[in-house]
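[User]
If only I could read backbone structure tokens as easily as an amino acid sequence. I have put the entry right below:
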Amino acid sequence: FKGGDTCEYLLSSGRFLGEKVWQPHSCMMHKYKNSEAKNCLLDRHVAFIGDSRIRQLFYSFIKLLNPQVKEEGNKHGNILFEDKSASIRVDFLWYPEVNGSMRQRIKSWTEDSVAKPHIIVAGAATWSIKIHNGSNEALTQYKINITAIAPLLEKLAKSSDVYWVLQDPVYEDLLSESRKMITNEKIDAYNEAAVRILNSSSRNSKAKVKVFSVSKLIAQETIMKSADGLHLPESSRDTNAMILMNVYCNKIMKPIDGSCCQPQPPLTLIQKLAFCFFTLSIIGYLIISLVHRNNYRKNKSCTDLESGEEKKPAVNTPNVSTLEMLLHSFCKLGLIMTYFYLCDRANLFMKENKFYTHSSFFIPIVYILVLGVFYTENTKETKVLNREQTDEWKGWMQLVILIYHISGASTFLPVYMHIRVLVAAYLFQTGYGHFSYFWLKGDFGVYRVCQVLFRLNFLVVVLCIVMDRPYQFYYFVPLVTVWFMIIYATLAIWPQIVQKKANGNCLWHFGLLLKLICLLTCIYFLSYSQGVFEKIFSFWPLSKCFELNGNVYEWWFRWKLDRYVVFYGMLFAFIYLALQKRQMISEGKGDPLFSNRVSNILLFISVVSFLTYSIWASSCKNKTECNELHPSVSVVQILAFVLIRNIPGYVRSVYSSFFAWFGKISLELFICQYHIWLAADTKGILVLIPGYPMFNVLVSTFIFVCVAHEISQITNDLAQILVPKDNSTLLKRLLCIAGFFSGLLLFSAMQDQSRH
């Protein structure tokens, strides 16, 4: 928007989200843990030099390394802190005035024989105001002294990170009589002098003293909570310490949710090749399109010179070849991927941290529910979980999940537990839908498998290449892909039992149940055998797909969290289709699913079960304990919803076309949100229009939904071209795809080697 350095913004501007969460202008601030702070400051020496306000900042800083540190010792003397395990040394040097003593100390660091601190944080002024009773002579002397110190600090800035902390405002009503001369007017004069003098001799140099002025903004909001009107409350100085840690450590640790002070990552070899491919696709499409259009214009109208009559050509529209369709799709995809890269890898657009409030989550939920009810239409068929109904189900769940992500509602445990049920419901539909298809159609051909795998994975594979992210990062797609293959293997392995075969002999039903029991046993065994599970997915090349941050723990956690729900979906589909075949349920328009009495009893049980689960989820106190119970109990609310939605005939006969539209592109919405709606790989929010949060959300949402819809169309078009029905052609394509992934693995290995 305005360009500039995000480090400069972090040090100079921002605002509070709520009471305690600081949001720097244009970038995201990472909250460093003790272990991260120690790793960043390994073998480092940090020096704080100044007055009691700098001492406060010193204590907040070392508490990031060791929270057990207590503020004790000589307040008007030097304080030393050392962490021998990480070879970190942090010193506080008591120099309350900018004078000859401070200059001498700083000068000693500039000598070649002396080890220089890696980070120097300095600042002082209030003592000068207090001792000299706020006289103008003191300000003049301050200017002289800081003019003498400035060249030394600038020299140190060539090899160390040097920060000058401007003076925070005071709350004059709370100041003691001995400090009444410290006024905000005086503080502003001292700050103005410091800013004007520092870096005056090195304005065009990269080595500069960094002016830490953001503390002033923080103090303006919080100084009234000060105990004495002079020193900041603890929460404010902790924020200052965290800003300081972000300024220095973000470029070293490169946290995903710490975009401040992070340089744009260099393009990898794979990204460069992808850029070349999309560029060639765009050029190729433009050339073919121009040639076709030129030929079409020549043939559009030809006049018979003898008769003077105009003849119409045999074809009224230009013939679009398969190659042109292919290049057209890749051309659009290339432009879309450019937008993805600019949003979440280039430092072109701003990013901000999430901040949760109940209103930011629940008000949008009410909006979309009202819209969904407004667009109610009759279904084409009235079967249980018909296509319109499942699209509607996916749609409203996806919209709720999107609101959950952008509002940062994961910090509120009851909402988190209900969202976990929605994710489980997606997997329930996976089990239900794929089981129903194989059971009814009996189609275990390679074409069906390739079509499903292509539609599920195409976008994610492209994003892995363009955004330089591992496959497991987009965890939901690996999850549904693996479960699809498990469902396929369960039903395709001998004996293949389908409805047509089972109708001839009821014993086949028991055979299928036996298969499902074997599947459940395997799931149960793997869920309590983490070592076996990790060994299976640690074999190359599976490890390349399922590793995240060097191990497969994240994949194990995601799989275990909803390990039974796909099985429940398959079992529900089996029972429902068996009842349907024996005409034990009524699916006519407006008819209840069962007899009135049975329907009423089941509805009552379903409503009670649904509410009971919600009450349990809302009373959760510990995320870990609730996650342990979730795999076994989430099906309660899912089945309750399915029965409530389908038992009454009038409810089963209508659906929301609004939700169904979003349901058809739910997978694309889920994946695209990572980079072009949220930011920093879902950790923050993309800011296209700074200063207008609501307008920004409207604009970014409109673009995001349009892009998701377009990618859905591109995926469908490419699936028809790249996954043909002819088996011999399909086999050739599979060999080409195998070659592509082999090359991708080779280039990936080369990248990893160059990084190490």
Summary: The chain is about 60% helix and 10% strand.
